[in-house]
Design goal:
- With 401 residues, the protein is α/β, with parallel strands linked by helices.
- Helix content is 39%, strand content 12%.
- The protein has a seven-stranded mixed beta sheet, with helices on both faces.
Amino acid sequence: MSENQARRIAAESPQPDGVPFVDLSFQYAPLNDELRQAADRVFASQAFILGQEVETFEEHVAEYCDSRFAVGCASGSDALLLSLMALDIGPGDEVITTPFSFFATASCIARTGARPVFVDIDPASFNLDPAKVEDAVTTRTRAILPVHLFGQCAEMEPLWRLAVRNGLAIIEDACQAIGAEYRGRRAGVLGTLGCFSFFPTKNLGGAGDGGIITTDDAELADRLRRLRMHGDAGGYRHVEVGINSRLDALQAAVLDVKLRHLESWTASRQQNARRYGELFRQYELLDVVELPAVKPERRHVFNQYCIRVKGSRRDMLLAELRQRRIGCTVYYPAPLHLQECFRDLGYRPGDLPEAEAAAADILALPIFPGLRPEQQEAVVRAIAEILRGQDRRTRPVRRAA
């Protein structure tokens, strides 16, 4: 974890008597013995890089996502980069993606020498607007990189049709969406390649960093395995220039234990989301906040629970909640097309208004498994007091059944 990340997490985390934004102890405590046994097994074998632990975990992820293959790597960011490399995307190419995502979504495109082409988002789901994608396709377009943001799959059918018509690959950024579904199919098998992150705060989080790529294409899987090992085809025979991005055995062992519990943790997140909806209605807040929209034929896994705060009061609410030791944060305060490092792409404020509006409005609330009902009520009650004013009623309105 970088120094900046540590500072950010410290700023977002409340004191012990508040409500934390993330609390991983609920996942860890019941699995303590299993996790220690898994780690001891790795230490006993002294096989720390790749090996049987990684192969077993890859098989289990492939089974979970219903893909033919899964290839572990060092991070979700590397999963995206390796996927682009495996498709030979580079200088002169364009990849269409969203401006409203974590930085790695676009930086991995730039790292290959290709050009990220940003298109605006659907304001309800925060995912790519397929109509805008079609308008952005040129003769240089090689791939579409949709993000299943916050744990909900993008609208994939129009993207499939567009990709087939134009001979394009689809790389799913599913780093926040393991277990999410679109029309009954899991994230990771909705395109050419699917990319996942195991950063500790993800729905399936490791004891450090890690990532994996899913695909049904045997040739791409073989190439990904080479590329993560410096392009080594075996015996120090380097057939291409790759990178060093291997999932270590300790992470694989830990993640394999936790994968068995992912469905119950997902159910907990979904229950927490439903409870938030009930609380916001009971406190009569739907005129001042907008709740996450779950699109039809989706399974939303709620890696984040993000409300939109109406009336340009998001930053005030953020500061006040933190003052009350209520954990919260902003995903994402500046859209990618307006980041300084992408200035040469030529985007200006106002070019992608929905992404810019979302960046100004969104506030993420605690959603982790193990979040207690009384903690959720404390969050919503605080929001009601802040947005309605201290002189207003802060008890929920209980409607007759």
